[in-house]
Amino acid sequence: MATPPVRVAVLGATGSVGSQALAVSEALGFQVAVVAGRELTPELLAVIDRHRPRLVAVRRAAPARRLRLPDGCRLVVGPTALAQVAQSPLVDRVVMAVLGLAGLAPTIAALSAGKVVALATKEVLVAGGELVMRAARRGRLLPVDSEHAALFQILGGQPWQPGLTLWLTASGGALRDWPLGRLDEATAEDVLRHPTWSMGEKITVDSASLMNKGLEVIEAHHLFSAPYQAVKVALQRDSFAHGAVAYPDGSLIAQLAPPDMRLPIARALAWPAEPPPVAPVMPLTELPPIRFEPVPRERFPALQLAYEAGTMGGVSPALLSSANDAAVALFLARRIRFSEIVPLVSQAVAEGGHWQAARLNLTNLKSADRWARRRVGELAGGGVSA
Questions:
Q1: pTM (predicted TM-score)
Q2: Out of 1.10.8.190, 3.40.50.10490, 3.40.50.720, 3.10.330.20, which CATH number does the structure's domain 7-143 have?
């Protein structure tokens, strides 16, 4: 008897990671059983037409016009739609590529239902790491970020052990060689010219500030049960070394691969099996020179800010993530300068001390998220949509 195909849900199906997850699922011969997005855009309708899923979830109401969904395809609409489909018995594995805190509830729902979750949404672990890891006892959480996927591969899926140092690598983003005095001049177009990766706009801005790496430090703390002092960051300009682990005997093992998100997506979807090749295998003799550099703190203050928020714990990492999201949105809307992003985030987190006493649950995280976004808008001189 033939083995039935693995059934995949791709939440955030029209984004950069979601689109690549659909392509990888197809290449692996998996069935795309569920797709989800914010609303029924033409892009999502094209995905539905190609993959003909059993369930489609959107958070916003469907258009009034009559929809022509494939036979046997059901539409789920509303604020809990993503969580509903994430725990559906029609699904074996869930790719979580929904932007922001909206991915937290469906991630917890999927893990609580015993699903394998391939996580690409940083904010899920940053804001709700304790809640997510508690739910992960009933399911399996696998990283899709290339850096965490590298550490997962090196460690063989095992947690951090005393004596190990986990190294995350960063390209430094589009402004890494700009004189500090010129950062005020950087436009959105300048920042979005990433030297090695092709990613969404928000994460590309975060790469230039190194906030993305700060958020990844918090993620690594939760994913691998590692203390913050055991998680380090180094610059690696070519993005060929994604992570490394230093061992007490003096050895250091690094994972090398081209900057191609299909690789970590395929490893997460195929786990525990080895995936077939989804990108060309580069001979060792053809690799570019690989050099590691320390992170200049004066150029990338966001990294230290993230370490501090992570160490404080509680709601502080959520405030950091939400404030940064709001500040990046203001920058992309040409309402603030690039150099204003981190100071705005820092001030919002500092003013959010009253949230430290709040119990860590979905309700309080959502309230803290709204407060942080609103406060950044006020500090910047205008409102920001929550």
A1: 0.91
A2: 3.40.50.720
